[in-house]
Amino acid sequence: MILLDGAKVANERNLRLKEQIEKDIITYKRAPCLAIILVGENPASMSYVKGKGKACKLVGITHELYRLDESISEEELSTLIIRLNQEDHVDGILLQLPIPKHLNETMLIDLISKDKDADGFHVINQGYLYQKKPTVYPATPKGIMTLLKAYDINISGMDAVIIGRSNIVGFPIARLLMDAGATITVCHRQTKDLAAHTKRADLIIASAGRAELVTKDMVKSGAVVVDVGVNRVDGKLVGDVHFEGVRQVAAYLSPVPRGVGPMTINGLLENTYELYLKHVK
Q1: Residue 185 burial (CB count, 10 A)
Q2: What's the domain range around 162?
């Protein structure tokens, strides 16, 4: 079994990005800038934001963190997003999810300018993705595709099963895999016999948010398995895949942590850089 080492691949790409940004700062007289909006004190969100800020600093992207009280009104948050849309030095805007339930997540995401949408969640950017037009790809699907490419895994002709149908991972990775030549099956809570689908899959993308959902008996020998899940069980991080069991049959398997997570952050950094180039050129 070959480990899909997302931490290693992301680190290599981030170092190359750092070198390029250092050159571009000389040419364009400023660094890329990412604005991160954090509402409330969700421990997981705070940890993610800290990691994103650290990664920005590593590659030379300026990041501005806006920490907002959980009780902030929709009007106040909307006003901040509109102001950031108008700031010339801000290249990317990220609204850290989840946000408090009294706020309209869909409306606020779509309020971010599509030209500053570092996460690739804006309805227009997702529409462009489905129509195979140039756009900002959501960071996690982008990271998954980059990771598979780094290990020279040829997706064309594969039977791919995606577990989970969110707009953040499931739907966009299905589109990207389809564009790469795979035959797609998307499974979810209402799927009657999940194992019947996964057993025939050449490639499994597990993004259901259920700890160790995919077990050894659900995976055929030689399959490629990408684990997107991040679940805390007894104080330990585990994925949606039972790692010790599945590693006995899979040809490739991504770990949790140090798998898709670092690739997601790399995707965010590269998205911010691409938006920066559009603004300074």
Answers
A1: 16
A2: 139-261
